[in-house]
Every structure is written in C-alpha cells, then in structure tokens.
Design a protein that fits this description.
The protein is α+β, with helices and mostly antiparallel strands and 203 residues long. It has one domain (3-201): Fumarylacetoacetate hydrolase, domain 2. The chain has 4 helices and 15 strands. It has helices at 11-16, 89-98, 103-106, 152-162; strands spanning 3-7, 26-30, 35-36, 51-53, 55-61, 77-84, 87-88, 112-113, 118-119, 130-135, 138-144, 170-172, 180-181, 187-192, 195-201. The protein has a 6-stranded mixed β-sheet with strand order 2-1-12-5-6-9, with helices on one face. A hairpin with a 2-residue loop joins strand 10 and strand 11. The longest helix has 11 residues, at 152-162. 40% of the residues are buried. Bound molecules: zinc ion. Zinc ion (ZN) binds at residues 5, 54, 56, 85, 172, 174-175.
Length: 203
Amino acid sequence: MKIIAIGRNYIDHAKELNNPVPKEPIFFLMPDSALLRNNQPFFYPDFSNDIHFEVEIVVRISRLGKNVASKFAHRYYNEIGIGIDFTARDLQQKCKEKGLPWEISKSFDGAAPISNFISLDKFDDINNINFRLEINGEVVQKANTSEMIFKVDELIEHVSKFMTIKIGDLMFTGTPSGVGPVKKGDRLIAYIEDEKLLDFVIK
Ligand code: ZN
C-alpha cells in the first residue's frame, strides 16, 4: 500500500508558511513504514530539532481505480480516520531552498500516526466534517473539511491521473492552519467531530 499526502490544501495554512495557493493539488508519497498505529508513542528523531505537527483527515481507498472522474470518486472510499503528518520543518526548509525532494522531512519512520478508521455512513457529507487537534489539553488546530481548496473527490481525480489507487491506500488530505512544533512529553489528542480517535505522546 502507499500513503498519498496532499500539500497546501487549506488557504490559511498555505499562507502561514508563505506558500502560494496552488492551482492544482500537490502531493507526495510516504512509505508504509511511516505509519504509527494503536496510539503508540512518537519518538523524537535525532536528525531534526524542529518537528511540527499537522493534523489531517485521512481517507482510506476501498476500490482499485485509475483515471477516476471526480463525479465517481465517492465510490472509491468509504472510511475516514485522522492522522498527523509530522514534518521535520528544518530539513524541509533546506530541501525547499535547494529544490530537492523533501521525503527525508516527511516520510521517515513514525512520521504518520493514524487512528482507526470509521465508516462514512455516520456522516451526511464528507465535505462538512469538523476535526481538531489538542496538545496538552489545548486546541491548536480546528477546521472543517468544507475549507479544503480541493475536495476529496477532486484529489482522487488528480492523483489517479498519475498513479493507480489501490484498496488500502491512504490519503492524507492536507492540514489547516495552526501547525507548530512538538516537544518531548507532549500529549496529542485528535478528534473527528466529538469522537476522540487518536491519543499519544511524544517521547
Ligand atoms: Zn501535511
């Protein structure tokens, strides 16, 4: 399986990092070794001094697809979860300055903690779902999927133009504003609506 991660999909977040608002979706890949499941702790890596959290809604692909038109894209997923796209911002900044691929800052082991997945039957509309992240009891990111620049169906259309999507693939759909650093000892709790789905610590 692969993990597709969308960048700059919320206007406020693109602005806070001084990135232009994209005209079409941008994405990168993470390997399955980036996943961190079952609320296991995240171990702060020794190659970075500036690990940032990014909370994101994660869509699980349920059907094989290639060149999926956005109007049919809803048939290709039926569950969502919530995840953190940990980013070594110091490494990413160096990669961006040199015009290099940024995988080392995004795709390292444990960079992608994810929750269990829940059925979309529970929701009326994937484009109207509230989610948030709390660190040490304080809300640091809070958004609604309606604020995405490119909706989930458009993301699937775009990604599947270039690569086949497969059952079990995961798509991180981008982070809203409010990203910031974590430190050892922090406790991160993420919610979809009022359901606590992710709860882990930084070690
Ligand atoms: Zn991200």
